[in-house]
Specification:
globular, 17 strands, 5 domains, 730 residues, Rossmann fold, alpha/beta, six-stranded parallel beta sheet, seven-stranded parallel beta sheet, Arc Repressor Mutant, subunit A
């Protein structure tokens, strides 16, 4: 071991407590210390941040780290301060600071106490920032998340384009660019824009062998959310992230998860900075298990034990998908990555591009198509993903860590068809995209096919006995095995490579699984579907009979014992303890204690006799009843406020308030409205009404109003029924 190696490892141990470096870390750090420009491409979880943190701590002066997100800066600074003797060792400079805080940061930097200063690109470009940094000793500049420079990257930030000229105005110091995701095109853009074409390039494998990749069809809203809830409940207590494209969806899913017992919080740009920071900290401190977020969450978040990443919506690009899934399993242990795919989502993403400049729209469209190809492919997902980033991978080494390798589809011999497809690619001369090739194969004379006179090719229509999905599968197989090349800069045009030419001349047997054809789920199907339980019909019949039996014993109407929706819930969740019964919709603790025992005994016997594997998940509870509103209503009733005043205080109409109160009472909470009812009717009439409710199985309020000749309004009768249920059932 050389003295330099020994010194580096001692510094690593002293500062961070590690005994050895990972992958390319040591080589990168050596190069930075030697004053070289460096370009570091290293997957999430490989220790990218340490590559600039350690040399910053070892060198004289302050390293400037340019970072795109305030949340990312805060997380990194908090982490570094944990290793330092004082908080001054690392600071961030951005718009979130007050004038006093900004002065403290600048004083610490000027005095030499600060080894790392994290700066947002928007802050860096200000004249006052440039002037200040020119007055201090800068050791080097690190550009984190450098893919933001490229329009072909998944988080393009125009501010990143000016970084090089701003740095030149400060000092001629070494520059380090770092990213976890970069296709060959993005790599070139980064180096060109930062004037780093001569930089030393350190590229690690993009393979994350501990991550399991799976794509599931996105069904109707209720079913997809049930799938997600089941998935989370099977990993109880484990940390995960759910990504959505819209703020509205983030809020909705977070609420539904909470309503179903999951410790979850939302995270998106619509929340104020304090709330975002609080939610992020709670996730890091494990006060919550799941964050439901837009893509803004997670960049650089140093939480090693995120066990799953779910994409509720299809990402805008494969780079984005790779970056986001990479936040799972950073400690090298298991990480499940599940994408719910609906082709209709691609169309929505393309609509978002319609107002963009032409060049940006074309780039965005190609990135969406690449993401669709990944989702629909039946090839090894790991091989597909790594091929996109310019890395060769043998699918035998996937070790069944993707759904296509773990559950392979039946393959078919496509040797003849594959050669024909390659011949078409050759005949079109690299001037058309995958859809055009497919149109030739199936004999579809589109305007573009006619314009190129490709309807006159001998292969036109030769594959009309196969559908478009089959022919797309053959093209994708050719791409992933480097017989074809796709130029995404030029609208995804397909050209034949030398290896493909050789295959035409010397064909070899080809077997292929057909890619998945996903059904479009329309917005109407998806957004408006009710969250309904698929309950056990046989068990429901038995529970219904027991409900009537208990009602006869108690001399009460059956609906007072349990509502039908509660029986359906029991027939879905199979509760066999009183604690589980409390979680049934419309039950609660009091009602479970009062009526639950015979029901859980019946269910336990049914489960045993029918050898039922009780589900980990619960059917989705909707979030109509907010706990805060429920508490306020109960407190107002305890204060004996009149109904109209309670409704006004909760911004509800009287009928809406009565429905809320009825839900509370049906769930087993005892409420007393006698202070209000006694002013409307005397005890004799009250007993007559209660006798009516006691003697009828009909839960129809209109029938009750008619029974008493319309002497009482619908609202008054509903209030009488609420008081009746509260007195006799709770």
């Amino acid at each position: 071991m050389t003295q330099q190696t020994a010194d580096l490892r001692k510094s690593l141990k002293d500062f961070f407590g590690f005994d050895s470096f990972k992958g390319n870390q040591e080589a990168v750090i050596r190069s930075i210390l030697e004053g070289n420009d460096c370009f570091v491409i290293m997957p999430t979880g490989a220790g990218k941040s340490l590559c600039y943190q350690l040399p910053a701590l070892m060198q004289e002066g302050t390293a400037i780290i340019i970072s795109p997100l305030i949340a990312l800066m805060k997380n990194q600074v908090d982490s570094i301060r944990g290793f330092g003797e004082s908080d001054a060792i690392a600071h961030f400079l951005n718009s979130s600071l007050t004038k006093t805080q900004t002065k403290t940061v600048k004083d610490d930097v000027a005095s030499g106490k600060t080894k790392m200063l994290y700066v947002a690109p928007e802050t860096l470009k200000k004249d006052e920032t440039v002037e200040f940094l020119r007055s201090v000793k800068v050791s080097f500049v690190a550009v984190d998340e450098a893919h933001c420079i490229s329009e072909w990257g998944h988080d393009f930030r125009p501010e990143y384009r000016r970084i090089k000229q701003i740095i030149k105005a400060i000092d001629d110091v070494p520059m380090v660019a770092l990213t976890a995701t970069a296709t060959p095109k993005v790599q070139f853009d980064i180096q060109k824009n930062l004037n780093m074409t001569d930089a030393k390039v350190f590229k690690s494998s993009f393979n994350r062998d501990n991550l399991y990749y799976e794509v599931k069809a996105k069904g109707k809203k209720g079913q997809t959310l049930k799938d997600i809830l089941s998935f989370i409940n099977q990993r109880a207590g484990k940390s995960g992230i759910i990504y959505c494209l819209s703020r509205k969806k983030v809020e909705e899913i977070a609420e539904i998860l909470v309503a179903n017992g999951v410790r979850a919080l939302p995270y998106h740009a619509g929340l104020d900075a304090k709330t975002r920071s609080s939610h992020q900290d709670k996730f890091l401190m494990e006060e919550v298990d799941v964050i439901v977020a837009t893509i803004a969450f997670g960049m650089g978040i140093d939480k090693p034990d995120v066990r799953f990443v779910i994409h509720y919506d299809v990402p805008k690009s494969l780079e984005g998908y790779y970056q986001e899934t990479g936040r799972s399993g950073r400690d090298g242990k298991e990480g499940d990555c599940v994408l719910f795919y609906n082709p209709n989502d691609n169309e929505k993403l393309e609509k978002f591009l319609k107002d963009k400049p032409v060049a940006e729209r074309e780039i965005g469209t190609q990135l969406i198509l690449e993401m669709a190809s990944f989702a629909e492919s039946s090839q090894c997902r790991r091989k597909f993903l790594l091929h996109y980033f310019g890395e060769e991978f043998d699918s035998d080494n996937c070790n069944k860590m993707c759904d296509n390798c773990r559950h392979p589809k039946e393959t078919v011999d496509v040797t003849k068809e594959f050669v024909t497809m390659l011949e078409v690619a050759k005949a079109t001369g690299g001037r058309v995209n995958i859809d055009h090739i497919v149109e030739i194969m199936v004999g579809e004379a589109s305007n573009e096919v006619k314009a190129y006179k490709h309807d006159q090719l001998p292969q036109f229509g030769v594959g009309k006995d196969r559908d478009a999905t089959f022919w797309k599968s053959t093209v994708r197989l050719g791409l992933i095995n480097n017989l074809l090349e796709k130029n995404i800069e030029k609208y995804g045009l397909i050209s034949l490579l030398d290896k493909g030419e050789d295959f035409i001349q010397n064909p070899r047997p080809v077997k292929m699984p057909i890619d998945t054809k996903f059904e479009n789920v329309s917005d109407q199907d998806f957004e408006n579907v009710q969250l309904e339980s698929l309950y056990d019909k046989d068990l429901y019949v038995k529970l219904k009979a027991l409900q009537r039996e208990v009602a006869r014993e108690k001399n009460l109407p059956p609906y007072v014992i349990f509502q039908e929706s509660s029986l359906e819930d029991m027939a879905t969740k199979y509760p066999i303890t009183l604690e589980e019964m409390e979680n049934i919709s419309g039950v609660g603790k009091n009602k479970a204690l009062k009526f639950g025992q015979p029901f859980i005994e019946l269910i336990a016997t049914y489960v045993e006799e029918n050898d039922i594997d009780r589900p980990h998940d619960m059917v989705l509870k909707t979030v109509a009843n907010k706990s805060g509103k429920k508490i306020a209503i109960i407190q107002n009733i305890d204060k004996k406020l009149v109904i109209d005043d309670i409704a006004r205080s909760q911004a509800l109409s009287v009928p809406e308030l009565l429905d809320e109160i009825e839900n509370i009472v049906y769930s087993g909470t005892k409420l007393d409205f006698s202070y209000y009812i006694d002013e409307i009717i005397d005890d004799e009439v009250k007993e007559e009404i209660f006798d009516y409710f006691r003697g009828t199985e009909d839960n129809d309020l209109d029938a009750a109003v008619n029974e008493f000749d319309g002497d009482f309004s619908h609202d008054e009768m509903q209030l009488f029924r609420i008081q009746f249920i509260s007195e006799v059932a709770n």
